[in-house]
Automatic annotation (TrEMBL):
The gene is rnpA. Residues 1-20, 94-114 are annotated as: Disordered. Signal peptide: none annotated. GO terms for molecular function: 3'-tRNA processing endoribonuclease activity; ribonuclease P activity; tRNA binding. NCBIfam families: rnpA. It comes from Enhygromyxa salina. This is Ribonuclease P protein component.
Length: 114
């Protein structure tokens, strides 16, 4: 599970215009022992590192690992991450399309005065 949020300009701690893309990883003890949890975190960090340039700046991501992640391979994590990035792009485009549609609407028709 991944939660994604976009930070507004000026929310950077140092006030910079270009905000870094950040990743938070949560792996609970239900997933496995410390070795398993650390392995999952290493996998997710590596996939994020490889795909970081494809993500927009100022993006905050929180990755919450589920129990199935204990048996995941690098290829599976990478495939899931790529699917999430593609899904996010679709949602952003759909939101932009809806916003454009709202702006293009003409003013409501007024009834003629009698």
């Amino acid at each position: 599970m991944v939660f994604v949020s976009r930070r507004a300009p000026g929310q950077s701690p140092d006030g910079a215009d270009e905000l870094p893309t950040r990743l938070g990883i949560t792996v609970t003890r239900k997933v496995g022992n410390a070795v398993t949890r650390n392995r999952i975190k290493r996998l997710v960090r590596e996939v994020f590192r490889v795909h970081r340039l494809r993500l927009p700046q100022g993006l905050d991501m929180v990755w919450v690992a589920k129990q199935q992640a204990a048996a995941a391979t690098y290829a599976e994590v990478a495939r899931d991450f790529e699917a999430l990035v593609a899904r996010r792009a679709q949602l952003v485009e759909a939101t932009r399309t809806q916003a454009r549609g709202r702006r293009r609407r003409s003013e409501p028709k007024q009834k003629p005065k009698r």
